[in-house]
Each structure stands twice: as structure tokens, then as C-alpha cells.
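Bench notes, afternoon.
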Amino acid sequence: MPKPKKRCDEGQQKWFDEALERIKKATGARTQVQLAEVLDVRQSSISDAKRRCSIPAEWFLKLYRSHGLAPDWLSEGTEPVYLNPNKAKIPADTVLRETPAPYGRNNARSRVAPVSNMAGLDKSAQNWDPQPIEELAIPETYFRPKLQVVKVDNASMEPVIQRDAYVGIDRAQTQHPDGDLCAVHFPHQGIMIRRVFLQNGEFVLKAMNDQYSDLTIPADEMDARTVGRVIWVLQDIGTV
């Protein structure tokens, strides 16, 4: 009888994810294919490393030889980034700036993001454009290149999303997996946040609050009216 495969514990998984992210940032590899090319290994080798939560020692040696990277920085985040700066492909200050500490760490950073109301700049327009009303400091790890933050002005998604909550929307994500939270534009109303489901050739947008009606949109209109997918919510639940 074969032995059960050993699973990574939470600490091992966290270490591996952070180390792999440093490798990607310093080499510019954004996909598993690109990373395999940088390391000159098969993609299956990367999959095996992910399964074991273990980075082979020869990867650190290869990255030192090809990019001048310091093994201690790759493994633990201990500076300096480079032992041989002459081989650096990306400046150290850029790598460090793009590799924020995870949310909750003492040295975690934040950035200020503009916040829009849900109505947008012109309620009657066919396309939604933001109307900035304030600014919000968010963890650096919550940022996305096409992030849009809105302040919720209704109770349609309570108790999941409270009125006055801040919602992060990734405008680069416009797909509609069943049950996901999406921000969809309705002319003269603004953004509506709902759970979306595809049923019989149309999308049903379901509210969490029973006092609000579900909405429907023909499937061929959904892409044009989707602002993005909800990726995080910041709210005070002290009074819930």
C-alpha cells in the first residue's frame, strides 16, 4: 500500500510562497513557463517544488550565477538582494519596492488609493467612470494595477457587505464565474455589486439582502457592463 503524500504545513507553504515571489520579482518571470525558462528546468519541476513547498538548492546557485542574486535574500528576504550587482537584471530598489511585506507584518507598507462613489462621474452615461470623493490608505498587497475602490451606498449585499464599506474592484478581471461578486454598471443607477449566475442565456445578479430584487442582464451585454470583480472588502463590523 503506497504511503500517503506528505502535505506542506502552513509555515512551509508561507515560506515557499514568499521565496517564490521574490524569485519572480527579481527575474521578471510572471508565469510558470517564464520561470522554468529562467531556471532552465521543466515546468514539472516547478510543480513538484510547489507540491513539496521546497526550493532546490541548485535553483539558488543558478540564480546567483545568472542574476547575481543572494541566496539569503531569496530564501529569507535578508538584504542585500545581490551578491553580484553587475549581473542584476532589475535594480535592487525596484525589486524591494515591488515586494511589499505581507499584510500584518511590522514592516508592511500601504498606499493611498482614490475612492469613488457608486454613481460615478455621469449617471446617465453608458460607460462607468469614477467620481473621486475621498482617499483611502490600503495595504500594499491589496493594490492592483487596475484597482478601483468604491464606497458602498446601499444595503443590497448586507450582511456580507455593509453600507459605507470600501470595496476593491479589479477592473482587469471581467470574467463571471458563478457565484462570484461582480461590479456591474446600470445607466442612471451606477454600479451594482451582486453575486452573478448564468441561467438560460442571461446573467442573474443576486442581492444578499431579501429586501432588494435580483437583476438580470442578457449574456451578450454583460461584458460591456461589467466594471470588474470584487477582490476585497474593508468595513467596520463592530455594530453588526
